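@channel sequence for tomorrow's demo:
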Amino acid sequence: MLELVGIQKHFGSVQALRGADFSLAEGEVHALLGENGAGKTTLMYIANGLVRQDRGEVRVNGVPQPISSPRVARRMGLGMVHQHFTAIPAMTVAENIALAAGWSGHPRDLGRQAQLLSERLGLPLDPNQRAGRLSVALKQRLEVVKALAGEARILLLDEPTAVLAPAEADELLRIIKAFAGSGGAVVLITHKLDEALRAADRVTVLRSGLVTYSGPSGAQSVESLARAMIGPGADLPILQGDGARVPTPQVSDRTLVRLDSLEVSRESGYGIAVRHGRLTIQAGEIVGIAAVEGNGQRELLRTVAGRLLPLRGRLEVARPIGFIPEDRTSEGLILELSLTENVALGMDDQTSWIKRGRIDWRAARRHTAELIREFDIVAPGPDVRASSLSGGNQQKLIVARELSRNPTVIVAENPTRGMDVSATASILSRLRAAADAGAAVLFHSSDLDEVLHLADRVIVMSRGTLMEAPIGASRTVVGQMMLQSESR
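structure tokens (generated this afternoon):
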């Protein structure tokens, strides 16, 4: 149904794709894997008309097709679900679907049309509900319905389960497989190797813009896929998510974070995000927050990081605080500035090369170059713009900057979201090393396996209430606790 043959693509001096081949057959789910910057999303953007290739050919149903825009792709039967939600929050479900599909007509008719479509696809939605009020699982469902609203038979999915609880992810994968079984075809971009093996019929692995493996998923394991992604000889830890950690012996009795009867309003200003929160974190301890999006974890972390003020209650946090925001492009970095300038912006007056607000730029460049080497950031040098880095390397820069300040408390929002398996392992190991050195770490990840793997204690947030999971609780138990808010 879809072929990409000999695809090459340059972005300035960076060659993102080096003659990559990819094929998608009717009735299959085909996983596309690779490290950050390997070319996965670029390849699918070319298929969807968002990016034009330098060389190579795109074929749909065996016919060469110059796909110049997503509108042309939609006419060819392709629909794409992007990594981040694209629905307009203030518009209804029906309006968002109509906008994506190009429908026109009376709002009442559009509502009926949207409802019938969602029910026919097995993804029922309330057409009159505003998109901004949907749960995260229903937002992801809306993205799939939008992609299929133009009668697409080829579905391109970029990290569709990244923000879903385990049960929600399993349900979405079931729907995806049913769509393929009905004669459609699905490309699944994911960094979860076990998910790829569970859901996909075939797997293609990209490394540095080249295909290193393409074949049946049944012939591979998590370990062999990781080797294909990062190259032979690499010793890579694989997260198994088989239960929460036992507290490490490095944890001391020195309290660095204390919350007592804390209440925090939602960022929107409407409603309470954190209700009577009680939590202490000791030096050397990592506390992981497990929660479905919208249950108050964002407001909790940002209050501890000093980005939000609580309504009432007691809050004591030792300083300095390192903060790794969820959105690296709008909050973590200024993309138009150089790597050195971005690093300097994150420092304070305790930095040796900043005196009375004046920056020693030569020392700043040396410091940034050291971070590039130490954290294995793929960049030509400290003077290039942050926008020239891949998303994974932008995230590495933020983590490097924050940890280089030797913070007493580290707050991290989804620090590995969209990261490949190698970069994920590196970032998690650095958070563990910071805790072992005496820092207190509070983090949230939408990947429950990461929370279970890294955290000494797991706190589940449901409707703003904090509940501590039992030591060693399984993935299933914690997942059920996360979804308590959805069932009430």
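heads up for whoever presents: The chain is about 35% helix and 25% strand.
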